[in-house]
Amino acid sequence: MWPRVNGMRTMELGTEGRLRDRLNALVLSGEKRATTGLLQEYVNETEGLEFVGERLALLDNSGRQQATIEITAVRVLPLDQVPWSHAQAEGEGDPTLEAWRTVHESFWTKIGTPAQPDTPVVCLSFRLLAEEEPGEAA
Known about the structure:
Helix content is 28%, strand content 30%. The protein is of the alpha+beta class.
């Protein structure tokens, strides 16, 4: 199971370190309004999918709540059917859908969970509700 903070499920983007710092900064700036994960991760962690209206605690590298986000859409698709509109909403600067797929496939391979074109992925869209003040208890 994924951790809970302040009664909410949590979201930890990317991997710990500079990548998470960069992705969280994109969320806080409003540039990142979507993310994509492997459906198999939910199965492995015995977690249900997020649902529209669910609020999540966005965690930083220390496991502290950095912000609260609200899920606005959830779609499960094969990786090769993720639309460009979703990839753009991830806000990571990929110039094309092909580049977005390549970056994601490389990331998942690097962390030991390679993905193929037909691998089911969970496409989450969200909005930033609140940024936590530094030093607030999580």
